[in-house]
Amino acid sequence: TYKTEAHNNLNVQHNRQSKTPKIPSPFWVFLFHIKFLFLFLKKPTNHSLPYLHQKPTSSSSSSSSSSSTSTLIFDLMATSQQVEPEKHVYSVWAVPPDDVAARLRKLMDSLGSEFGGPKFDPHITVVGAVSLTPEDAVEKFRSACEGRKAYTATVDRVATGTFFYQCVFLLIHPTTEVVETSAHCCGHFGYKNSTPYMPHLSLLYADLTEDEKKKAQERASILDESINSLSFQVNRLALYKTDTKDTTLESWEKISECFLSPN
Asked: Which GO terms describe its biological process (predicted)?
């Protein structure tokens, strides 16, 4: 009897143990995670973000569903990691004719050798520094030049400013043609002046004291006695890359140029 009862007790314990759910071994847990990671990192083939707006067609297998999910995740990750197009600083200049430019460059070189400062091409700023991608800059420039006509620029006097890029310059009469050309081009570039437009042609870029500026101003009138009465036809506009942080101007370069229609 004792053996029979012990035997029955062992059977009961065995039945209870067989009904207890088995805990997965660490190996199978690890294998499951590996499979999930493989599905997650599976590289997409011909899917794209528009898939987000597609309706499911019919019931599909779990493997295709997992693949689609991983594809969407990959697309979203790729979209979020897209690099912004590189931008540069650009300006639009009104360029004087070659003979006038040669005269101005001679004056500018003389002032530069005496007071210092980098060399740059003679110009009247039409659109100030604006940050754009190269493609946008060229497209906006060409659009702004369409239908524009040549106009006259006349010097008022030699003047001085308050910062590096307006150290000594030729102040240009703000005629209707001069002001309207700037307003037209600024509109195409989406550029807004923080101060009223002051047309000018810089002669010297430098950080000088007020006394040095006054001396440079006087020297300009001595080096070219008739500079205060200079008048010339503007028949070209040019697009320049002009990083204003680069005071050496070594990175400045002409990107494009357009000829204005004759009057």
From this structure: cyclic nucleotide metabolic process
Do 60 and 186 fall into the same domain? no
Joined together, the tokens standing for residue 239 give 């697009």
Q: What is the dihedral of CA 126, 254, 138, 247, to 10 degrees?
A: -70
pLDDT in tens, 106-153: 999 999 999 999 999 999 999 999 999 999 999 999 999 998 999 999
Task: Note whether 102 and 224 are same-domain residues.
Answer: yes
Q: Catalytic pick from 7, 14, 33, 200?
A: 200
In a shared domain, residues 98 and 204? yes
Active site residue 200: yes
Cβ–Cβ < 8 Å for 124, 201: yes
Name the domain boundary from 80, 106, 140: 80
For residue range 170-213, list pLDDT tens digits in order. 999 999 999 999 999 999 999 988 889 999 999 999 999 999 99
Candidate list 14, 123, 173, 188, residue with the active-site label: 123
Reference 250, options 101, 119, 86, 134; nearest CA is: 119
CB-CB contact of 155 with 184 (8 Å): no
Select from 80, 96, 126 the last residue of a domain.
80
The pTM for the full model equals: 0.68
Cα–Cα–Cα angle for 136, 174, 185, rounded to 5 degrees: 10
Domain that holds residue 168: 88-259
Q: Examine the domain organization and report whether 12 and 120 are in the same domain.
A: no
226, 170 Cβ separation under 8 angstroms: no
SS3 call for 212: helix
* Three-state DSSP class for residue 239: strand
Domain total in the chain:
2
